Amino acid sequence: MKNPVPLPRIGMRVIKTAVAVMVSYALFLPFGLTYREELGGVLGQMGPLYACIACIICTQSTLGQTFQQGISRLIGVIVGGALGTATLLLGTALENLWVKTLVLGAVCVAGVWICLLIKRPTACGMACILPCVILITGLTGATRYYYAAARIIETIVGLLIALGINAALPDHRPEGQRGECDMKVEVDNTTKKLCVIGDPVEHSKSPLIQNTMIRELGLDYLYLCQPVPRGKCKEWLDCAKFAGYAGFNATMPHKEELVPLMDELDADAALIGAVNTVCIRDGKAWGYNTDGEGFLRSLADEGIDPAGKHVLVLGAGGAAKAVCLKLAQAGAEVTVCNRTVDKAQAICDHDPAHLYPAGFDTATLYNKAQSCDVLVNCTSLGMAGTKGQFEDFSFLNGLKPGVPVVDLIYAPAETELLRRARQKGHKTVNGFGLLVNQAVLSLEHFTGTEINAAAMKKVLSGLL
Ligand code: ATR
């Protein structure tokens, strides 16, 4: 026997859309708002139809995309409403159907042109539909204004409902696809170029993070991944300037090599002796370091203030240096424990009054853990894809109750160190906050736009 035709699956996308449409319809009913001419004015033109349309379109996407869709629809409604009502100026000329035909074409061209000019292609539909409805249905006089105002109100209501539904119900996409379709960035000839350089760099999460933020914020930038061999920063910088890059991030092993190549260096890059963000403005290279400030902000996000505290830092690599110097600057006393004590000593030499080097043996770690108020792991021990792991976690037994344990590692989300610390009742913080905060600071430098890091954290938490 032949298999019966399979029924389409009723997934979360369908459920969300149905709920959104029902809510947007039901919301108008208690007010008797169902297009009743006798109500007059804007109210007489008001009904749930466009709220339903807005909900249907918006709930087809994720929460972040919903917002962008909604804004685009609103822009389309405003552009279309303005164009439609502007046809009032033609007065009785519109009574000639051939004139009306030409006007219809002209307002559609104008609507599409305006929306593309302001880089809102998804606004084109409403920008054309509205003048068409106004002209074809023969709405006259002030009713056209009421009609446009009603559409704007309905669209806002629809957008708010769609946002609520998308926030309340789970993401409709399968786990593995979350983030993938968020990576679509519109590119045209004016799009400004950004990238991350490194050797190797293919593993970098920066393109995913930055392109997601760029799309969320509606910025006209594109962020690429650019391998640059060790020792070739000078050549790359010349290329980037010539190719018109707006800036780039740098990861291993370029952060130190970039320092003397900068035309201008910010205070943190000079303090840490490393550049992770380069902005190219008028042919000049401006070097920044956002790692240290990103770390302090990630502590602040968790309610941890290092001022006057004793912080135990494990590790003395590049990341540890940024963390230690900014902690000292923020008023903390920092003990730096490292397997290679000379490297800990080298960091502490920058600020001997606040930074103290120590070894990495079990007894030293236990001893230093006893007197610390915050513990920060800056070693690569426990990181996914590396073999290294702490040989002995007994130093955790030395910690006072309530001491937060921070790990700069974000993959895995919970390292063995954090797992054991959590089981002992300590507050634990992974490296996700640092990752997002340093990226947000970089994008702020690149674009000059102030960015809400908490909102970006929410958007990115599903991706990384
Ligand atoms: P990053 O730039 O991320 O800081 P890094 O400069 O390679 O990376 O630093 C890695 C840190 O992890 C160093 O402090 C390193 O100790 P050494 O300076 O002695 O190499 C530390 N680390 C790596 N593997 C380790 C291990 N098996 N035991 C102890 N520390 C280790």
Kindly list the characteristics that best describe this protein.
six-stranded parallel beta sheet; 18 helices; alpha/beta; binds 2'-monophosphoadenosine-5'-diphosphate; 464 residues; Rossmann fold; 3 domains
Shape assignment: elongated
Assembly annotation: single chain
Radius of gyration: 28 Å
Helix content: 40-55%
Count all strands and give the number.
Answer: 12
Describe the structure.
By secondary structure, the protein is an alpha/beta fold. The protein folds into three domains: about 10-170; about 180-290, Leucine Dehydrogenase, chain A, domain 1 (Rossmann fold, 3-Layer(aba) Sandwich), CATH 3.40.50; about 305-425, NAD(P)-binding Rossmann-like Domain (Rossmann fold), CATH 3.40.50.720. Helices cover about 50% and strands about 10% of the residues. The chain is built from 18 helices and twelve strands. The strands form two sheets. The chain has a six-stranded mixed β-sheet, sandwiched between helices. A six-stranded parallel β-sheet has the order 9-8-7-10-11-12, with helices on both faces. Strand 7 (about 310-315), helix 12 (about 320-330) and strand 8 (about 335) form a beta-alpha-beta unit. The chain starts with 11 loop residues before the first helix and ends with a helix. The model has no long low-confidence stretch (mean pLDDT about 90). Bound molecules: 2'-monophosphoadenosine-5'-diphosphate. 2'-monophosphoadenosine-5'-diphosphate binds near residues 316 and 380.
